[in-house]
Design goal:
Pfam families: CAP, SH3_3. Keywords: Signal. By secondary structure, the protein is an alpha+beta fold. It folds into 2 domains: 60 residues, Roll (SH3 type barrels); 138 residues, Pathogenesis-related Protein p14a (3-Layer(aba) Sandwich), CATH 3.40.33.10. 33% of the residues lie in helices and 30% in strands. It has 7 helices and 12 strands. The strands form 3 sheets. It has a 5-stranded mixed beta sheet. The protein is elongated, with a radius of gyration of 27 Å.
């Protein structure tokens, strides 16, 4: 009887050793998305009228100092009630009506664009392609990739993983606009989309199916973008899209 018991126990041990151990299943987490938008300050303007009067005050009742020629760029001292207070190269200060000019930031070259795209991860490049495809289909200009913004977006995605949160407001960096300012990102308009999803394609689809996120993606005021995608969150991938208009 004792011998039979030993054989029976041995068989049980062998069966237990051969039984495959199922990996612990990760709990199902609902994919997340969030968006935010802000208009920033103007630092430079470019004259779009043939001649833009530079006046002594911010009203057409003030005398004209001189005419500013088309396509010239000037530093903005203040932005006030439909007028820009600017300084010319020779130090004159005056006011230009906002409809005579547009905000201006020096654009990157085409060579810079190609070099920037080469620095993206495959996931980031896929998201840029999908996003710009939506804009082009609707007759909008594709967004230009900015690697400085991309570096900030990557930091934001990693920060959400490291600190286990999903929000525009970071415990480390503050709001996305605080973060852009901290890292020297200049903008006239700015926005941020966040997505947590197992795949880039599904993240993009969820963003396009949400009005606020779709409006950021298709906003004609935006000209540049940074994309940061990091793995390892409870959602799978954390995607940060940072938009700026220049």
């Amino acid at each position: 009887m004792k011998k039979i018991f030993i054989i029976f126990a041995t068989v049980i041990l062998i069966l237990a050793a051969c039984t495959p151990v199922r990996p612990q299943q990760r709990p199902m987490v609902t994919p997340q998305a969030s968006s935010i938008f802000k208009k920033g300050s103007v630092e430079q303007i470019k004259i779009i009228a043939d001649q833009a009067p530079l006046r002594t005050g911010h009203s057409t009742n003030y005398p004209i100092i001189r005419q500013l020629p088309k396509n010239n760029v000037y530093r903005v001292l203040r932005d006030r009630e439909g007028w820009y207070v600017v300084e010319t190269d020779d130090g004159q200060v005056g006011a230009v009506e906002a409809k005579q000019a547009k905000p201006y930031i020096e654009p990157p070259s085409m060579a810079d664009q190609q070099q920037n795209i080469a620095q993206l991860t495959p996931n980031e490049e896929e998201m840029l392609r999908l996003l710009n495809g939506e804009r082009v289909k609707r007759g909008l200009n594709p967004l230009k990739l900015d690697m400085e913004i991309t570096k900030v977006a990557r930091l934001k995605s990693q920060d959400m993983i490291d600190n286990n949160y999903f929000s525009h407001n970071s415990p480390t960096y503050g709001s996305p606009f605080d973060m852009m300012k901290q890292f020297g990102i200049k903008y006239i308009y700015a926005g941020e989309n966040l997505a947590g999803n197992p795949s880039v394609a599904n993240a993009h689809e969820s963003l396009m199916n949400s009005q606020g996120h779709r409006e950021n993606i298709l906003n004609p005021n935006f000209t540049h973008i940074g994309i940061g995608i990091r793995e390892g969150s409870r959602y799978g991938k954390i995607c940060t899209q940072m938009f700026v208009g220049r």
